[in-house]
Design brief:
heterodimer; A: about 325 residues; mainly alpha; 15 helices; B: about 500 residues; alpha/beta; D-Maltodextrin-Binding Protein, domain 2; 3 domains; five-stranded mixed sheet; four-stranded mixed sheet; 21 helices; about 15% strand; globular; ABC transporter substrate-binding protein (chain B); signal (chain B); DUF3502 (chain B); Bact_solute-bd_prot1 (chain B)
C-alpha cells in the first residue's frame, strides 16, 4: 500500500515538461499504478468471498430468507454464533480432532519426508536410484480407492481410529521429490565433506548442519502438509463412523453433501424432513468462519520463510 | 548404483505385490481376520435345523448399514434391540448410520473392498439398487424369503416384490410404504381463503391461470405466484425411462408400449407455451432458470408450488411451515418401478449369515415392538405412549434419536403421533390400492450398452432443461435446438435400446 501511495504522489507531483529523474530501468509511474491497481483488484476478488461469508454469518436468518444475501444486511445478529456456542460440542470436539491430526500428521510427515529425501539426495548413497524410483513410481501408478480402502481397513485395521486420518497421507511422493531437489541444490557437498573431516556422524550432519540451512524447504513442506491435513475430509468420510473422531472439514462437507442430496432427491424423500436436521444458512456460514480462521491465522508464521525464498547460500564457491 | 537387473526385479516384485492386494479384494475366503463377525460362528448348518428357536442357533453378529444422520442415542437403543434379538433369533446387530449425502459414496467402496457386511439399505435413489443387483453385490433372496420370510410376504403388497425383480429374481426386501407417486399443486391457504378460491377445480397448468393473475394483481410484488426453482417441469402423463431429467418416456394413455422422445410430444409443447406465457406475465421468479432451490415455505411469500405427495402429506407440510398448506392433485396416483424400489434392505453377497439376516429382516418388517424400537427409541426415554398405538415425542428424541422411518422397515407397524389422523396407515393402503400401474411397471432398464449416450444427453439436459421448462426462454426457438443437440448425442440410439429391452421383458413376462 505504501509503495502505491508513493508512486501516486510521484505521478501527481511530476510537473509536465519537466524531465523526471528516476531509475532508467523502472517502469513509468502510470504503469506502476495500473499494475498495482490490477494486483489490488485480484487480491480483493480472492478475499471478497470470504468477507462475504463473514458478513452472512452475522446476518439475521429471517432477513436472509426474505432479502437474500446482501453486503450491508438490514438486521445484524449474533444468533448463529450463539447457537454454535450452545450446541457446539460436536464442533469443539471436531476442532480438537482436526488440530490433533494436523499437528501429529505434520510432524510425522516432516520427519519421514525430510529423512527420506535427504537420504536420496546424497550422491554417495548406493541405493538412491532405487529408492527415488520407488517414491516416483507411486506418483505414476496408484492402486486406486478400493485397494487403499482394503489396506487401511482389513490389513491395518484402522477403521474408526484417529490413525486412519494420519497414516494414509504422511508419506507423500511429491513432497519427497520437492525436498530432494531442494537438498541437492542448497546443501553443497563441500559442507558435508568438511563436517565429515571435523568428525561429525551422519546423523549429526543431518540434524546440526543440513536441517538448519534447509529451514525454508522444511517450512514449505510443513505448510503444504499442514494445509493438507487441515483440509482433508475424504479419509474421515471413508473410515470414521464414531462422531468423536470426525474432523471439522468432514463435518462441513457432510452438511454440504446433505444439501446437495436434498436438492437432487427432493421428490424421492417425501416422508422425512432431512432439511429440518440441517443447520440454517447463517449457522453454516459461521461454521465455515470458525473452521477457516485458525488456518488462515497460521499462515503469517510461515510467511517469513517464504520471503527468504528457497535459495540460501552458505559456502563460497 | 543399481544394476538394470535389480531394477527389473523390483518392478516385478511391485507388480506382484499390487496384484495380490487388489486380487484378494474380491474373494473373502481366506480372510479370517475380520473384526465384524465372531470367529468360528459359521451358521451354515443352523439352516438345516430349520427351527426358529433361539437356543438352537449359534450366536451371530449382523453388520447393518443404514442411511441417515448418525444418532447420538443409537448405541443405547441398539443394546435394547440386541437383548430382544438374542432372545428371538440369537443374533445381535451392529448398526452403522451413514449420512444421506455420503451413503452413495461410501457403500460402493465398502462393497468393492469385499467387506462381509450383512445388510445394507438400497433404493432407486441411494446406493442404487439396479446396478448393484446386476453387478452381484447382493444375494438373490427368493429362497430365503420362502424359508424365513413368510411373514414378510403376508404383510407386503405383492406389487413391491414384482416391481423390484431383476431378471426374475429379488435382491432386496422392500419396505412396505406408499407405493404410488402423485404430483400435486400446493397452495398457501391464506391466499386461497382471502380470494375465496375453489382450488378443487385446479388440475392442469392451464387451470392455474386466473388464480395466478389474481395474486399477481392483488398482492405486493414480493409474493411469488408460482414459486418454483429451476428444477420445475410441467406435468406430462409419461412413464419415464430414467426419471424426469431424461427426455425418454412412454405415454401413459397409449397402449402401444412405445418409448418416444418426450420433447417432441404434443402435451409438452402446449405446456411449454403456457409456462412461457406465465413467465412473461411475471408469475414466476425472474431468475427461476438459475434458482437452485427456493425458500418459499420458510418465508411464506408464495401462492402455489408443486410437490410429490402421499396421504396426509399436507398435515406434515403445514406443521413444518407453521401455517396452513392445501393441495390439489395434478394426476391420479401411479405405480412406477421406481416407487417399488424406493426403500429396501439387501443382504450382501459376502454375508456370512444370510439366513440370520433374513430372520432379522423378517422381524423388522413384522414385529411391532422391534420396528418401533428402532424407529422411535426407548419408551419413557424418547417417547411416551398416549394410547396403544399413539405416542408423543419427548425432548430426548429430538436431541439424540431422529430416525428416517421410511428407510427402516414396514411403515404400517409404526406408532402414529397424536396429531396424525387415526386412519393414517389405512389411508396409505387405500392410496396404494387406488393407484394404477404404469405400463412399464416391473421393467428395469439397463443403461450399460448406451452409457456414453446417456451421459452426454444428461449433460445437455442440465444445460437446456431449466430455462426451457421454466419458460425463461422462448420454447419455439430453443426446444428444436435442444432436440437436435440430443439427437446428435445419440438420443435415438437410446430409444432403440430401451425399446429392445422393453420388448424382450414384455415377451418374457406375458
Amino acid at each position: 500500500m505504501n509503495d502505491l501511495s508513493k508512486s501516486m504522489e510521484r505521478t501527481l507531483l511530476s510537473a509536465p515538461g519537466k524531465k523526471k529523474t528516476r531509475d532508467i530501468n523502472a517502469i513509468s509511474p502510470l504503469w506502476n499504478f495500473i499494475f498495482n491497481a490490477g494486483v489490488c483488484l485480484f487480491a480483493l476478488s480472492c478475499i471478497f468471498p470470504f468477507i462475504f461469508i463473514i458478513i452472512i454469518s452475522f446476518t439475521d436468518e429471517k432477513t436472509l430468507a426474505i432479502n437474500g444475501f446482501s453486503i450491508l444486511p438490514e438486521v445484524l445478529s449474533l444468533d448463529a454464533y450463539r447457537f454454535l456456542m450452545r450446541s457446539g460440542e460436536q464442533m469443539v470436539q471436531s476442532l480438537g480432532v482436526t488440530l490433533t491430526v494436523t499437528v501429529i500428521g505434520t510432524i510425522l510427515t516432516l520427519y519421514l519426508v525430510s529423512t527420506y529425501a535427504y537420504a536420496i539426495s546424497r550422491k554417495n548413497f548406493d541405493q538412491r536410484r532405487f529408492f527415488s524410483f520407488l517414491a516416483f513410481f507411486t506418483m505414476l501408478f496408484s492402486g486406486g480407492l478400493v485397494p487403499g480402502y482394503i489396506v487401511v481397513t482389513q490389513v491395518l485395521h484402522l477403521r474408526d481410529s484417529i490413525w486412519a486420518l494420519i497414516f494414509p497421507s504422511i508419506l507423500n511422493a511429491f513432497y519427497i521429490i520437492v525436498m530432494r531437489t531442494f537438498f541437492t541444490t542448497t546443501v553443497p557437498d563441500a559442507i558435508i565433506e568438511s563436517a565429515k573431516i571435523d568428525g561429525a556422524t551422519e546423523f549429526g550432519i543431518y540434524t546440526r548442519i543440513v536441517l538448519p540451512i534447509s529451514l525454508p524447504g522444511i517450512a514449505t513442506i510443513g505448510l503444504f502438509s499442514t494445509l493438507g491435513f487441515w483440509n482433508d475430509w475424504f479419509n474421515a468420510l471413508l473410515y470414521i463412523d464414531n462422531p468423536n473422531l470426525i474432523p471439522l472439514q468432514t463435518l462441513l462437507i457432510r452438511i454440504q453433501n446433505n444439501m446437495d442430496f436434498i436438492v437432487q432427491n427432493s421428490s424421492q424423500v417425501v416422508s422425512y424432513d432431512i432439511a429440518a436436521t440441517l443447520p440454517t444458512e447463517t449457522v453454516r456460514m459461521a461454521m465455515v468462519v470458525l473452521a477457516t480462521l485458525p488456518i488462515a491465522l497460521a499462515y503469517p508464521f510461515f510467511q517469513k520463510y517464504f520471503i527468504q525464498g528457497l535459495t540460501i547460500g552458505s559456502v563460497k564457491e | 548404483m543399481m544394476s538394470k537387473k535389480n531394477v527389473l526385479l523390483m518392478v516385478v516384485f511391485l507388480f506382484a505385490l499390487a496384484s495380490t492386494l487388489t486380487g484378494c479384494g474380491s474373494s473373502n475366503t481366506d480372510q479370517n481376520s475380520n473384526g465384524n463377525t465372531p470367529s468360528g460362528t459359521q451358521s451354515a448348518n443352523s439352516a438345516e435345523t430349520g427351527g426358529q428357536t433361539g437356543d438352537k442357533l449359534d450366536p451371530v453378529k449382523l453388520k447393518v448399514y443404514l442411511i441417515g444422520g448418525p444418532q447420538r442415542d443409537l448405541p443405547t437403543v441398539q443394546e435394547e434391540m440386541n437383548k430382544y434379538l438374542t432372545d428371538k433369533i440369537n443374533a445381535t446387530v451392529d448398526i452403522t448410520m451413514i449420512d444421506w449425502g455420503d451413503y452413495s459414496k461410501r457403500l460402493p467402496v465398502i462393497t468393492a473392498s469385499g467387506e462381509n457386511y450383512d445388510i445394507a439399505f438400497t433404493s432407486s435413489w441411494a446406493f442404487d439398487y439396479l446396478p448393484n443387483a446386476t453387478r452381484g453385490a447382493f444375494l438373490p433372496i427368493n429362497d430365503l424369503l420362502e424359508k424365513y420370510g413368510q411373514d414378510i410376504k403376508k404383510e407386503l403388497d405383492p406389487r413391491f416384490l414384482t416391481g423390484s425383480q431383476v431378471n426374475g429374481k429379488n435382491y432386496a426386501v422392500p419396505v412396505n410404504k406408499e407405493l404410488a407417486s402423485q404430483w400435486v399443486w400446493r397452495f398457501n391457504k391464506q391466499y386461497v381463503d382471502k380470494y375465496k378460491m375453489d382450488i378443487s377445480k385446479i388440475r392442469t397448468l392451464e387451470d392455474l391461470e386466473p388464480y395466478l393473475k389474481q395474486i399477481k394483481e392483488g398482492e405486493p410484488a414480493d409474493i411469488t405466484p408460482l414459486a418454483v426453482p429451476k428444477g420445475f417441469k410441467p406435468y406430462i402423463p409419461f412413464d419415464f425411462l430414467l426419471g424426469d431429467e431424461f427426455p425418454v418416456g412412454m405415454n401413459m394413455n397409449s397402449t402401444d408400449g412405445k418409448y418416444v422422445n418426450i420433447l417432441e410430444s404434443g402435451e409438452l409443447k402446449s405446456s411449454l407455451k403456457t409456462i412461457r406465457k406465465y413467465y412473461q406475465a411475471g408469475y414466476l421468479r425472474k431468475d427461476v432458470a438459475t434458482l437452485e432451490g427456493i425458500d418459499n415455505i420458510k418465508t411464506g411469500k408464495w401462492f402455489a408450488d408443486r410437490e410429490q405427495t402421499q396421504p396426509y402429506a399436507e398435515l406434515g407440510w403445514s406443521r413444518s411451515a407453521g401455517y396452513d398448506i392445501v393441495t390439489s392433485p395434478m394426476q391420479d396416483p401411479v405405480i412406477f418401478t421406481g416407487s417399488a424400489t424406493g426403500s429396501m434392505h439387501a443382504i450382501s453377497a459376502n454375508s456370512k449369515n444370510p439366513e440370520r439376516a433374513m430372520m432379522f429382516l423378517n422381524l423388522l418388517n413384522t414385529d411391532k415392538y422391534l420396528r418401533n424400537l428402532i424407529n422411535y427409541g426407548i419408551e419413557g426415554t424418547h417417547y411416551k405412549k398416549i394410547s396403544e398405538d399413539v405416542i408423543e415425542d419427548l425432548p430426548a428424541m429430538k436431541d439424540g434419536y431422529q430416525m428416517p422411518g421410511f428407510a427402516l422397515g414396514n411403515l404400517f407397524l409404526t406408532y402414529s403421533h397424536k396429531e396424525d389422523p387415526a386412519d393414517k396407515w389405512e389411508a396409505f393402503k387405500e392410496f396404494n390400492n387406488s393407484a394404477k400401474v404404469a405400463p412399464s411397471f416391473g421393467f428395469n432398464f439397463n443403461p450399460d450398452p448406451v452409457k456414453t449416450e446417456v451421459a452426454s444427453i444428461s449433460a445437455i439436459v442440465k444445460e437446456f432443461y431449466p430455462p426451457i421448462m421454466t419458460g425463461a426462454v422462448d420454447p419455439d426457438e430453443h426446444l428444436p435446438k435442444a432436440i437436435s443437440k440430443m439427437k446428435a448425442a445419440g438420443l435415438d440410439k437410446v430409444i432403440t435400446e430401451a425399446q429392445k429391452q422393453y420388448d424382450e421383458w414384455k415377451a418374457a413376462n406375458k
